[in-house]
Amino acid sequence: MKAFTYARPTTIAEAAKLGSERPNARFIAGGTNLLDLMKLQVETPAHVIDVNRLPLNDVTATEEGGLRIGALVRNADLAADMRIRKNYGVLSRALLAGASGQLRNKATTAGNLLQRTRCSYFYDTSKPCNKREPGTGCAAIGGFTRIHAILGASDSCIATNPSDMAVAMRALDAVVETANPDGSERRIPIADFHRLPGDTPQIETVLRPGELVTAVTLPKPLPGIHLYRKVRDRASYAFAVISVAAVIDAAPDGKVRSARLAFGGLAHKPWRVEGAERALVADGVDAAADAVLAGARGQGTNDFKIPLTRRTLRAVMAEAVRA
Amino acid sequence: MDMSQPIGRTPLDETTDGLLGRPIDRVEGRLKVMGAAPYAYETRELKDPAYGTLVEATIAKGRIVTLDVTAARAMPGVLHVMTHENVPPQGPKKEQVGPVLTGPEIVHHGQPIAFVVAETFEQARAAAALVKAEYAVEKGAYDLRAAKPDAVEPKPMQTPPDSALGDFEGAFAAAPVKLDVEYTTPVQTHAMMEPHATIGSWEGDHVTLFTSNQMLNRGQVSLASVLNLPPGNVRLVSRYIGGGFGGKLQPQADAIFAALASKAIGRPVKVALTRQQEFHVTTRRSDTIQRLRLGADAEGRLSAIGHESWSDTTPGDGFFETSANATRSLYAAPNRMTKHRLATLNLPVSSSMRAPGEAVGMLALECAMDELAEQLKLDPIALRIRNEPEQDPEKQVPFSTRQLVPCMREGARLFGWDKRQPAGTARDGQWRVGMGMSAAARLNPLMASSAAIRLETDGSVTVRMAMTDIGTGTYTILTQIAGEMLGLPVEKVRIELGDTRFPKAAGSGGSFGAGSTGSALYVACDALRQKIARAADLTLDGIHFADGRVISGNRSEALADVARGGVIEAEGEIEPGDMTKKFSQYSYGAHFAEVGVDADTGEVRLRRMLGVFTGGRILNAKTARSQAIGGMTFGVGAALMEEVTIDQRYGHFVNHDLAEYHVPVHADIPAIEAVFLPELDDKANPLKSKGLGELGICGAGAALANAVYNATGLRLRHYPLTLDKLLAGFAAQEGTAQRRS
Question: What ipTM does the predicted assembly reach?
Fold first, then answer.
């Protein structure tokens, strides 16, 4: 680990100011990802700003009938929150599908949104990686790509976003709220929050230097059944091979009235194709799968993700209609 | 005492106290859960240690052209940087333990190229990251399949590489029913909880290493060779060990570096490998390619069994995976052939991992038997019973005990085997459900071992030996043996292990630990009983020990009173005799598994699992069960998820951490049970016990693979059985179904 300075601000303004003043600074909350990356020198921040003392621990109702989730709300607490369980089942299920009980006790809402990819080559500092060291190349392309992208990838990077929580939030059209060093605030739709790799895979979100995630708001609840189906290589404590977050409102006769679908494990960001949802309502599940997988390209050792996504979507729809 | 005669009736058969066999808790359990059991890295007996960190090669084959340690040396707190340019002279390789930093040549990824010592762990690690190597990279070989044609006949290890009986080729060609299949298993890693760690220190030309090692006396000899010392000048201490599974059978680079560096700086040096380093710097289980050929008549009687196995190791090493071990004795057939070939790859050294040979060999053999049963439309148990040999079919000597058939029958009854459905037909919601079984067998060796015991003046006893407890329960079963022999409760028995200053012991490995060291202790206890009787002036006839007293006829005396005049000491030694030559000795069992295969995603999940085993006398029902279900869990991992992935471009292990190298977690093991059938093996050792540490993994994964077949009708022969392989099979099945309709 390299030497770094450490600060523990108590106000949002102070945190954002520290974050913008100091080059190569990182905010730390639960530390479940950043500490590992620092030990491996994948991340080498010069300044670590501990935001755990900020007043961002609550889940509160919004005027629009939704919920505002403080950035520091722990994943375990959020998953267990009765309002989330009752009205946003897809989010609770996604959270509980992630990591392990111990990690969920530490990991926070904002930290989960900002976790880095699990690409093995990103983690291995002896291998080239455009995300870790821009311009060095991508060792994953042509390598072992089981956990890599089939959609939205580039010649620079084929990494995936590993979050389960963010996939559910994408289905729910959550909004990320931030505070800026100049005192201004931003509301960023989650669709715009994460970026595709393009030729700057090191830039993963639209956050600016010092910009601090303060909350995630959920719009008012969606009708229908909430499902999160995570396909994985062991029953717990494994990142998704692929995952599907679905909110499906079906009539008693099984006809789908409305649908939200978002996918994990496919791309550099939670993957949602609104056209697929319309196709689902109009033409059924295979049309939806076609729309989601338009342009999908396997990397060799992850080609199976293409049929797997289609099959999993079918299974999710069968379950939704059964319920 | 040597085992050249069967054992008659012993005090352990009297079970005066009934202590032996009872499921008592681990005697050191409280210390462990309180964090008060010092593992190697936590030892505080060597004061003021400096901290060392290994630097690994980032290429898999080639040469170091320049190695720049200037920046590392200049870092705060750095005391020493060792490279091939300044490493002190070392002695020759002994067994698989060899000198480090021998030159600029790199033969595998992760090979240590430098060792950085600093005042603190953080300083050492930060400085290590600044060691800059430039390499001349050469093309390496990392693919067993590609290297297979060049594989050679290796030198014999404990077993010869080849065996033959009768005319295998002729009999196989003539057999009316034939199976000729290839199975593969991937590289696996031990993934024990405690990483390799050592604290080293010198006094004159004597070195002491607090380390994490399974076989101290063997490690002492091999380290002495590398360090150019007489073995007596090397002291190894391993009091508590957080798992080994064969990965700590031999000292690894941490021990050698700690020794060299502490000598260089004149101060203790401690080092622990990182989890990532565990994958490349220590040993692994080789991947294998295995060809199984079975020839049978229409009733399923085997006429020919052939098992060939290819594995690989690092340049200059001769370790081969003895995959066909179990095949040599498990089933009757007059014509037999086994063959092992070894390829050289630029990968880390291969060595023993839990049940070397059987663990991967039975993944192939026991599925091949299932395939043959399917072909013959026979129940897999019936096929095995039909081929039950009357004596060891290759060695042609009697079995000491063999209860494979009772294990299979009892397992079938307990598991509800009769409810198994035809392949590909059972369904439970989204799950395609299947049952599978396999046999389990593991060689039961006996190793030379010795023990010292002392009756203290307070009537308690102290036992000492250079044995280790790698988490198996050795402290506990030794306590029970001494307590049973001397009529003492647990709290009156003190077991001291893990120090080469104590009498030489077999160590933990090859399922021989409990039997060998327990037997040495038995002999020592027997000698102590006689000394106590003499001291108490009692005749040995009809003597027994109970409640802290020695009793003969109507006389009895408290042991504390007997020892009032001074401690009484005794020693015991066990040597293997020709019982292992005159009899074929194995532990046996049968595995039963029920799996669900997700019909949509191909995910395979274990639903329940049962193992029925025999292992002679069970020394502690609780620790024995833990060994059995632990081994079975290993088997679940081997069947479903464990695989070190090799990047063929770089020659490195891609998934070198526990996030991506998957071993089963609790959620993968929903219901698992192990049952032991009563048995005493009087040819095995004076305890009449047999090895259990590896039996549980033998065949376990095959039971799951056979269950996957039963669930889906898909026979997958390349482990692990991950969902992508199932999906490919589903696609083929659905394509076929579509063409039919």
Answer: 0.97
